[in-house]
């Protein structure tokens, strides 16, 4: 579990599938209202408090993004607490008022610390994937984004993820963040273009 602060009232938590399995939670369970998912949320909030001093009391907005073969990104935003308008007996600090948004993405996004690793990865991926992909620069890293449409079947999907994992790391940054804050390096057919320019 990795936690990072996005703003005064917003944090991002990255959960790997190992984090979920350790707690006996399957990917599909996240969408269900069951005690072990509540326990997971409480663990995340405790972790966020220990690492960042981020304390949650009252209303929160929770966005969950499922990423393929990587895990889940959970974005928690604190709302304005209404406790000053409530009687102390009506409010329990242990209960969160949650507004939950769930999104699942089949996009594959990997980042590379070094441009050479990105080149090597693209040469390997090009053996099975001849078109598609975008490359962004963001926070001194290079990101390869493959949209779900670029990966037409499960076998190809799994192969591409296995190849990319040899050279890079699964990203917790979504393509929307990259499009807004990153620098677009190659906008289309990035794998093929990079391979043609760097033998």
UniProtKB/TrEMBL annotation:
Alphabetical list of InterPro entries matching this protein: MecA_C_sf, Neg-reg_MecA
Q: Which GO terms describe its molecular function?
A: protein-macromolecule adaptor activity
Query: Pfam families under this entry?
Result: MecA
The UniProt entry, under PANTHER family, shows: ADAPTER PROTEIN MECA, ADAPTER PROTEIN MECA 2
Know anything about its domains from the record?
A: The N-terminal domain probably binds unfolded/aggregated proteins; the C-terminal domain interacts with ClpC.
Partners and quaternary state? Homodimer.
Q: Hey, which family's this protein in?
A: Belongs to the MecA family.
Q: What is this protein called?
A: Adapter protein MecA
Say which species the protein is native to.
Ammoniphilus oxalaticus
């Amino acid at each position: 579990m990795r936690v990072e602060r996005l703003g005064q009232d917003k944090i991002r938590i990255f959960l790997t599938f190992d984090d979920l399995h350790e707690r006996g939670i399957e990917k599909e369970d996240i969408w269900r209202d069951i005690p072990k998912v509540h326990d997971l949320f409480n663990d995340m909030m405790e972790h966020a408090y220990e690492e960042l001093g981020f304390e949650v009391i009252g209303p929160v907005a929770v966005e969950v993004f499922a990423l393929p073969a990587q895990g889940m990104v959970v974005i928690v935003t604190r709302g304005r607490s209404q406790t000053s308008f409530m009687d102390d007996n009506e409010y329990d600090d242990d209960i969160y008022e949650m507004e939950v948004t769930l999104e699942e993405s089949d996009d594959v996004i990997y980042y590379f610390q070094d441009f050479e690793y990105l080149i090597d990865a693209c040469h390997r991926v090009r053996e099975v994937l001849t078109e598609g992909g975008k490359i962004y620069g963001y926070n001194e890293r290079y990101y390869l984004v493959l949209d779900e449409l670029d990966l037409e079947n499960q076998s190809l999907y799994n192969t591409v993820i296995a190849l990319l994992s040899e050279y890079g790391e699964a990203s917790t940054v979504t393509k929307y963040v990259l499009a807004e804050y990153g620098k677009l390096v190659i906008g289309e057919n990035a794998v093929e273009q990079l391979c043609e320019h760097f033998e």
